[in-house]
């Protein structure tokens, strides 16, 4: 079966821990309209865990004396996040294999299953704040359908950008629109007959591709499928699914589009994370360092050529002051970097990040395209 997301419990969990974690994850994802074992793959103590690279995935490792798993090396190399869990933080060396000991561990005694479930879902991009969609459409052709998609996706706890709902009065409309596009996982394209005849919708489509954001094209019955849509995923509407007089899409079609968008969103999140990790690995290995792996909080541990360790938090989308605060609080005694793709971000936002970086020296911003350059002279 092909899952949309893929999660696993490995190591040495007790029956009670498995039950508690499964219950906590089931409750958390039910609000998205997703079910464990159906849309979300759920493997308990598998002999081998090898998730498809184009799906968001993560694993939790329950430690114990001599606990181990054959997939750990391949998961770390492939950028699959692993959350190590121990009975007590003083027992990390006893309960966690050496290959995981450099990652941040959680104590099950501190927060129990709910804390572990939140960490696992964050690693797979399954917290509500991580689910972002941009609706691209022509107001004169698909306003009603756009509002329907806004309501349906918001009900599934997506953060949906719709131009008429998401930009405050007096904002620089176009600059803010590009900024929000950069912060999205998926561009939902309502492809009406004149979609590509508008400068702005055509630019939204093109810039989404340039940014590596996945596109789900919802094709109107009378719209021709453009040659530009070679990499887009397709969700066609037939004449029975669109009310020509009101412009409304049928409820059945809305449900189908939402499920397909969830699948595209998982792939987009996974691919953009891998792209950030690849940029980091290329830069670090070029200067003689090593990327060890990704763990709790999607934190990547990096060893610099002089053996110093740095924790790198990759940001898919727009980094914020909260991103910096969380990274600093999660790793108060470590050297910390926040990795991000700056292309397309609002100029004032970039200026704000620079200003913030001048006052908080313990955590530094690192542009993905400059990773090797900046880590070659690391001073945080």
TrEMBL record:
Tell me the domain of life.
Bacteria
Give all residue intervals belonging to the TIR domain: 129-265
Q: Which GO terms describe its biological process?
A: signal transduction
Q: Which Pfam families did the record assign?
A: TIR_2
Q: Which InterPro entries match?
A: TIR_dom, Toll_tir_struct_dom_sf
Q: What is this protein called?
A: TIR domain-containing protein
Highest classification ranks of the organism? Bacteria, Pseudomonadati, Pseudomonadota, Gammaproteobacteria, Oceanospirillales
